[in-house]
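A reminder from the course coordinator: this example appears on the midterm review sheet, so study it carefully.

Given structure:
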């Protein structure tokens, strides 16, 4: 599934992708409300699972590596994760980076 950005909105490239793009929009809105970067939330959420030892974000440019490192250090408030759960975007059983 691929989405494209236009006017800071996510749009699907295929009609079957609307649900996924809607979920992305929800995550972005909650992240913005809490002043959290989506990159930081994604990286830290992946690392919260005890079975995960590392994440490999796949930087497209050398400068992105520094962004990824900074994202791992970004402070994310616990209410952000609760808001994602309340919106049904994260399972109640999923481990969180608290």
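Designed residues:
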């Amino acid at each position: 599934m691929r989405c494209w950005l236009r006017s800071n909105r996510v749009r699907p490239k295929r009609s079957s992708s609307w649900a996924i793009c809607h979920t992305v929009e929800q995550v972005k809105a909650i992240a913005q409300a809490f002043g959290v970067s989506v990159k930081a939330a994604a990286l830290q959420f992946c690392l919260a699972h005890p079975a995960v030892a590392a994440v490999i974000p796949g930087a497209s440019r050398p400068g992105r590596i520094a962004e990824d490192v900074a994202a791992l250090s970004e402070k994310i408030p616990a209410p952000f994760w609760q808001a994602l759960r309340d919106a049904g975007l994260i399972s109640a059983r999923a481990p969180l980076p608290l």
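Residues 3-86 form one domain. Residues 1-7 have pLDDT under 50 and may be disordered.
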